[in-house]
Amino acid sequence: xxxxxxYKKINEIALITLNSPPVNxxxxxxxxxxxxxxxxxxxxxxxxxxxxxSGCEIFCAGADINEFDDADKMFAKPSLPEICLxxxxxKKTIIAAINGTAFGGGLELAMACDYRMAAPKAKMALPExxxxxxxxxxxxxxxxxxxxxxxxLEMITSGKPIDATQALSTGxxxxxxxxxxxxxxxxxNYANELIFQDVPLKSCAQIKVNTDEIPENYFADFxxxxxxxxxxxxxxxxxxxxxxxxxxxxxxxxxxxELELAIDCLDTSQAxxxxxxxxxxxxxxxxxxxxxxTRLRQIEKVAIIGSGTMGGGIAMNYLNAGIETIILDLxxxxxxxxxxxxxxxxxxxxxxxxxxxxxxxxxxxxxxxTTNYDDLREVDLVxxxxxxxxxxxxxxxxxxxxxxxxxxxLATNTSTLDVNEIAxxxxxxxxxxxxxxxxxxxxMRLLEVxxxxxxxxxxxxxxxxxxxxxxxxxxxxxxxxxxxGNRMIEPYIRETFRLMLEGxxxxxxxxxxxxxxxxxxxxxxxxxxxIDVGYLVREAQxxxxxxxxxxxxxxxxxxELGRYGQKTSRGFYIYEDREKHNDPEIIKICENxxxxxxxxxxxxxxxxxxERCVYMLINEGAHILEEGIAYRSGDCDLIYxxxxxxxxxxxxxxxxxDEIGPEKIVxxxxxxxxxxxxxxxxxxxxxxxxxxxxxxxKKLKDLRNIK
Length: 707
Ligand code: NAD
Fold this sequence. Notes:
Layout: E1 5-10, E2 13-18, H1 28-43, E3 49-54, H2 71-74, H3 80-88, E4 93-98, E5 102-103, H4 105-111, E6 115-118, E7 123-125, H5 139-147, H6 149-158, E8 162-163, H7 164-170, E9 175-176, H8 183-196, H9 218-226, H10 235-248, H11 251-266, H12 269-283, E10 301-305, H13 309-320, E11 324-328, H14 332-351, H15 357-365, E12 367-370, E13 381-384, H16 390-403, E14 409-412, H17 419-423, E15 432-437, E16 446-450, H18 457-469, E17 473-477, H19 485-502, H20 506-516, H21 522-529, H22 531-539, H23 542-545, H24 553-560, E18 573-576, E19 579-582, H25 584-597, H26 606-627, H27 633-643, H28 653-660, H29 662-675, H30 677-683, H31 688-696
Parallel strand pairs: 2-3, 3-4, 4-6, 5-7, 6-9, 10-11, 10-13, 11-12, 13-14, 14-15, 16-17
Antiparallel strand pairs: 1-2, 7-8, 15-16, 18-19
Helix pairs in contact: 4-5, 5-6, 5-10, 6-10, 10-11, 12-27, 13-14, 19-26, 20-26, 22-24, 26-29, 28-29, 29-30, 29-31
Bound molecules: nicotinamide-adenine-dinucleotide (NAD).
């Protein structure tokens, strides 16, 4: 029978099996069935113990995400907190038999049972904090009682999973199934054993949180230890307060406090932002016009062309995933340097205890290097990362076209060049795609997957799957200068550089932007990326930007002075022994440039900095959406939160625009159009899409798959 929750009796044991694939989401129908199963077991005098388990691959992933934006359904009776209370007050022993992942409400359900038994592969987590909320069905109160304060703080504020062994060692689970028999049989045997031993009911209401081993100032120290990671986030502090309450209050009162804090988080811009990103990530794999059932290509062996800054980092991703990788560089010294870079990185990881020496050996054994294209005959995927020069890239792709086997995917890591033009240098443009990794490529999670005009559907879907294997967040984008990320950053940098001429200092701009929540300010970012890199990009665009004599002129000036940023120890700032210092000379340079260009210097407010930099970045995003270069506003947000340090708790630039309202952005842009004179007229015009949304009172996320 295809019941979403099955009820079965095996002698004196009642088995309640959640059977609502794929993840046993605890929607109202499932909740009702769990409760009715429980009541049936309670009313049956022959039942001595009850097992709650799952018929799916995982135990239960918690709340049903389809109920996220339907509070009526989410809180409809019986709600999860109510079910947990009912289970806890049961006079019959209840055992949660955790066969696989138990996340969020799934773990809260298990914690309301008397005993927990887990399969060795089971994983447990309370990931609510990643959605801007806190566990609301007793998680913050029961976890410290069962697993201790330390575990509760770590799990609840990070949202990260623990495995069955750790759960056993902390007391969160009571037993791990290790025998030969199948899991359900083992669970029934375990239940029978508990009945035989006449074990007591083990309700959390009777357990006091053990605070004996918690040092004084423990909570304050813990807060300090996560302060950097959680800067700007609202929910982690509420998680801590709920756990603090668990230490001093009886369960019933602690649950009330948890509910209060949970409600406090629920209707916040942060919860909306983080949930938006959660859904955006799920949606990003659905590509308009492509059948998700398309058969994928096999990727077993990968080649990287170019062993420079990017090549080495890209190679590490594949080695880490256990994929055979070959690096090719025409310059044997560069090749050696690249391999040395990989070795050094692994040595550092091993020293820090993140990898064992055996793992390092295993990974290095997967790596080969060559200067000969003939060695690439067998590879399934090539990622080219040679110099950013169209002629060189075309030659590389012509060589690959001759050597690589039919069906091999040929990818370019170009940041600015036309992927269609590169594809047409080959006889198989359908196999060509852009894979835009970000630097450092072994660390940054973002991967822009650039869909060329002719890129085959299976090439796109295969690269998306491959991206997940190497733990990236892939976002499919179309071909244009800078794709999505770098194209949106252009007006942001343009305004940053112009604001310095108008009177703001690098420090003021960086502080305003980091106070807004960005990981780094634009001046520090330019110093890190290299003033020379920006200059070379502008060189290729002089015609387009020549109408504005002030266009990023401060960048050109620094380039002329050889101040390339961190790499020369001087850019917008001075760098000494890894420390950054303000440079009064920058102000002087800006004053001179402003005078030459007839720009009046004045006090600049932080509000103006945010509006001009961030709103213009959003405006470019709206152009990109209208042109179909990005499919959804959420795709732009994934790119910005994973690749550009945009605050996650604001949900990305487009979600931020939705939160404050497109009309506010349009009106600010119109304001600067007027107030900034010729400069304003040149650059400040609302994107038509944004204007339309503002007129109609709609949001960017109301647009679905614009094409
Ligand atoms: P790099 O100069 O550090 O390395 C390029 C390597 O390519 C050199 O080792 C060079 O010897 C090798 N090479 C040149 N021509 C070759 C050929 N014909 N065959 C084989 N090898 C050849 O460059 P990089 O910074 O690693 O950038 C590589 C690519 O990645 C560029 O397209 C760049 O736009 C892109 N990219 C760079 C970054 C970044 O932050 N550096 C970020 C994203 C994308």
